Amino acid sequence: MFYGLGAAIGTEEGAALAAGYLQLAHYLDAKNGLVDLALGDIFQRGEQCEKAIEVFGRVPETSSMFRDAAIQTGICLD
C-alpha cells in the first residue's frame, strides 16, 4: 500500500512526501527491491546521488531489480 502511494505521488513537487511513504514501505518490507529502486530514483531525480547510491545498494542480489539498481548506481557515479 505505501509503495503504491509513494510511487503515485513521486513527482518533483511531492518528492519528500513520496520518499516518506517509500521509506515506510521499506521499513515494512525491507527485501522488496522495487521499493528501494523507486526510492533511489526519487533521490537520483532530486540530484541526491549519495543517498540514491545508498538506497540502490540495499536491493538484494536475489531481487529481479538488482541489475536495474546496479545500472542506476553507475549512472549516479557518472
Any overview of this molecule?
- It is a single chain.
- The chain has 78 residues and is mostly helical.
- It contains five helices and no strands.
- α1 (2-8) packs antiparallel against α2, α3 (33-45) runs antiparallel to α4 (49-56) and α4 packs antiparallel against α5.
Order of helices and strands: HHHHH
Total beta strand runs? 0
As a whole number of angstroms, the C-alpha radius of gyration is 11 Å
Low-confidence stretches: none
Relative strand content: under 5%
* Proportion of residues in helical segments: 55-70%
The largest pleated sheet is described as: none
Helices, by number, come to 5
Q: What's the overall geometry?
A: flat
Task: List its traits.
single chain; 78 residues; mainly alpha; 5 helices; 0% strand
What's the short version?
The protein has 78 residues and is mostly helical. It is built from five helices and no strands.
Break the fold down into its secondary structure elements and pairings.
Layout: H1 2-8, H2 15-28, H3 33-45, H4 49-56, H5 66-77
Helix pairs in contact: 1-2, 2-3, 3-4, 3-5, 4-5
